[in-house]
Amino acid sequence: MVTHKPTDTEAHTAKRHDWIAEAAYYLAERRGFQGGCPIEDWLYAERVFDQHDAQGLPSPRMALVFLDRRSTDEGAGG
């Protein structure tokens, strides 16, 4: 039996997809699954991943908590 070992690119693509899917779910969960748009959640999660990928991101839930706190702090201080 031949097994396929994923390349670094394939592994990164799979990690990216999984992270974005989970983050989009948490965005919808945060709204109580009311309103919003699944596509917008996905696109927002994509932007977050792509902007921060080089630095490495924590789990999607932790990343969203951090980003929410940061945007709230900026809004209060600005």
- Rounded to the nearest angstrom, the distance between the terminal CA atoms is 61 Å
Mean pLDDT: 80
Q: What is the radius of gyration? A: 15 Å
Uncertain stretches of 5 or more adjacent residues:
72-78
Structural overview:
- The protein is mainly α.
- It has a domain at 20-30 and 37-77.
- The protein is 72% helix and 0% strand.
- It has helices at residues 8-30, 38-52, 60-77.
- Helix 1 (8-30) crosses helix 2 and helix 1 crosses helix 3.
- The radius of gyration is 15 Å and the shape is elongated.
- The chain starts with 7 loop residues before the first helix and ends with a helix.
Keywords for this entry:
78 residues, elongated, mainly alpha
In a nutshell, what does this entry contain?
The chain is an all-alpha fold and 78 residues long.
What's the helix and strand layout?
Elements: H1 8-30, H2 38-52, H3 60-77
Helix pairs in contact: 1-2, 1-3
